[in-house]
Inverse folding.
């Protein structure tokens, strides 16, 4: 650490040399001795000593007191007076300059050393204090926090410069005024209670959240703490340290509101989709709209599907005496028309000043529309309608109302489209049912009317064919062809009657005697079996499980499966029949042939009307397998085929098992 340098200011040379010698003996460095006030100023500026020993009485125009005042002010160097004068006048003048020490001549070395060290220590402490104060002042002035001090009477005594940035006031605008002039009146009782707690708990930081009036008359939420430092000599007040959290509160409130909106929409969704009636959906939607936004009324408009672009009012809530339901607005007419055309939401705070507003609705209902909020209903990029809220009951429609209504419009669109789709499906199903009934009636009538004439034709052909001697060979061939075609036509008629009967007739399921049913089916196929030399193998018929069904219909299933196996089997056909009970309470019946098999594409086209097993090799009307499917499904079962090319085909049908049925169902 470098030695302390002391400038000596003394106009008596002998005394000056004595003082210099003493200082050197005490370990100090004396860089110079000045004999006048002017010289002292020059040496202080030039040498920047650590301290100055100043004689008060100096020759010349500037005495020691004047010189000390300037040295302290200009250079901040501590000055210690060294003089033989101790009169009150001299001491008073010296005291004004706030010297760091005062030594009366004559003095001892110990006194000199102690005074110098105390002066240097005090100077260092004051320098550190000034630096600390400067840092503190800089922090206070640059801080975004508002720091204020008030007395026990709640009068503000200090405000930090940040007050201007945060609250708009100059510090002087608040100093000297009561704290309550800047607080929200409704919060006064709570604030008084907080201050009471503060006064009872010295040096304890108590959290606060106060709404404080900004200079622009808005309210800012200030969050921080208050500490009672009335007993601290350096403060003597109640310190308030707070910062502005208004925007954070707004963001939190916005987030909470958004969460409430989402929760409301989540609860509303099931309410809207709980019904598939379009009018009920619209009514529930309107009630939710009015209640959520706080509107006086609302309406739902949908775009006319005929292509005109007109809007048709579906529902109004509450519906005014002069109802606007089914009222038409031309494309682009009114605020809702503009929204439908532009696809944009809009808020009209004063309809009388907006040229888009149409008074036609008010004229019809006697209702007075003052303000409107309208949003489009979209399905992908197409506007299908408009949601409209009318007359905000408190305040005006705002961005939050618009956002909420737009969110509602999404749920509304889904519910409306679902209701429309279901309504269209129901209408289509009803129309299809009516057409099916008409078709069944026609098929039954046509088949019934054709049956007698065709039977007569076949009968006459067979009679003529029996008198072969009367006709030439060519004529006999024609008669045989006529009889064969007639019988085929008769089969078609029988199948048409059966197909219509299966759709309309209700039968009670009974246990099936499959041996008798197969015997009847075999009788009907005796001629075909003989013609094709077919071999039919029944695999353990007596052990077949009993199924439920309707015997005449099941006979038709066997006839169709067996006739197909005979016609499209191998040469000669070898046909196996079998059955077993499945774990799913059904009996599985199957017919396996030794034919060429079916590709996967061919299998997918089976069991549909007018599709034959082999469209190329065989000719037929193609109703057989579709009848099989209709019969089995009517009886509560399933049909199917398993086949691989070159390995034959297995056609099967499943019927309910009697062993797993507690009662006999009807079909």
């Amino acid at each position: 650490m470098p030695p302390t340098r002391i400038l000596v200011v003394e106009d008596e040379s002998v005394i000056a040399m004595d003082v210099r010698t003493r200082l050197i003996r005490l370990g100090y460095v004396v860089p110079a001795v000045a004999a006048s006030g002017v010289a002292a100023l020059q040496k202080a500026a030039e040498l920047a000593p650590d301290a100055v020993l100043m004689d008060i009485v100096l020759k010349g125009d500037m005495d020691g007191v004047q010189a000390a005042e300037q040295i302290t002010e200009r250079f901040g160097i501590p000055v210690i007076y060294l003089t033989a004068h101790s009169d009150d006048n001299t001491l008073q003048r010296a005291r004004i300059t706030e010297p760091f020490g005062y030594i009366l001549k004559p003095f001892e070395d110990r006194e000199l050393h102690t005074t110098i060290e105390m002066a240097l220590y005090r100077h260092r402490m004051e320098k550190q204090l000034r630096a600390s104060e400067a840092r503190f002042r800089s922090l206070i002035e640059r801080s975004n926090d508002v720091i204020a001090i008030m007395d026990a009477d709640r009068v503000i005594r200090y405000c930090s410069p940040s007050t201007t940035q945060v609250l708009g006031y100059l510090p002087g605008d608040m100093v000297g005024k009561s704290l309550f002039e800047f607080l929200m009146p409704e919060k006064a009782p709570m604030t008084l209670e907080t201050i009471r707690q503060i006064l009872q708990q010295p040096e304890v930081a108590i959290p606060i959240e106060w709404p404080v009036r900004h200079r622009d008359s808005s309210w800012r939420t200030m969050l921080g703490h208050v500490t009672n430092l009335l007993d601290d000599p350096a403060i003597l007040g109640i310190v308030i340290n707070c910062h502005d959290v208004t925007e954070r509160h707004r963001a939190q409130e916005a987030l909470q509101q958004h969460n409430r909106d989402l929760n409301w929409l989540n609860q509303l969704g099931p309410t809207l989709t709980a019904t598939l009636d379009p009018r009920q959906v619209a009514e529930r939607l309107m009630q939710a709209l009015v209640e959520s936004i706080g509107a006086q009324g609302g309406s739902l408009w949908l775009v006319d599907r005929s292509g005109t672009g007109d809007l048709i009012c579906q529902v109004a809530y509450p519906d005014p005496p002069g109802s606007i339901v089914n009222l038409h607005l031309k494309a682009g007419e009114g605020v809702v028309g503009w929204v439908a055309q532009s696809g944009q939401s809009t808020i009209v705070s004063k309809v009388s000043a907006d040229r888009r507003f149409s008074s036609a609705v008010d004229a019809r209902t006697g209702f007075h529309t003052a303000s409107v909020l309208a949003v489009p209903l979209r399905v992908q990029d197409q506007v299908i309608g408009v949601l409209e809220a009318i007359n905000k009951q408190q305040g005006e429609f705002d961005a939050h109302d618009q956002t909420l209504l737009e969110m509602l419009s999404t749920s509304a669109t889904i519910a409306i489209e679902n209701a429309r789709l279901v309504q269209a499906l129901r209408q289509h199903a009803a129309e299809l049912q009516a057409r099916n009934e008409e078709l069944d009636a026609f098929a039954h009538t046509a088949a019934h009317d054709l049956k007698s004439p065709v039977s007569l034709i076949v009968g006459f052909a067979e009679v003529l064919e029996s008198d072969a001697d009367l006709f030439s060979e060519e004529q006999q061939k024609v008669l045989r062809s006529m009889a064969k075609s007639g019988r085929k036509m008769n089969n078609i008629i029988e199948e048409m009657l059966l197909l219509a009967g299966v759709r309309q007739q209700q039968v009670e399921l009974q246990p099936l005697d499959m041996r008798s049913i197969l015997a009847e089916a075999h009788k009907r196929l005796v001629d075909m079996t003989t013609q094709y030399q077919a071999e039919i193998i029944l695999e353990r018929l007596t052990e077949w499980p009993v199924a439920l069904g309707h015997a005449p219909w099941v006979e038709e299933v066997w006839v169709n499966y067996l006739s197909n196996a005979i016609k499209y089997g191998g040469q000669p056909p070898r046909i196996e029949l079998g059955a077993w009970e499945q774990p799913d309470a059904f009996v599985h019946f199957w017919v396996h042939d030794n034919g060429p098999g079916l590709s996967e594409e061919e299998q997918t086209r089976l069991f549909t009307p007018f599709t034959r097993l082999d469209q190329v090799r065989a000719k037929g009307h193609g109703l057989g397998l579709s009848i099989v499917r209709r019969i089995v499904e009517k009886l509560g079962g399933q049909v199917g085929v398993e086949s691989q090319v070159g390995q034959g085909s297995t056609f099967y049908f499943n019927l309910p098992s009697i062993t797993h049925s507690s009662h006999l169902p009807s079909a």
User: Anything to note?
Assistant: Residues 612-622 have pLDDT under 50 and may be disordered.
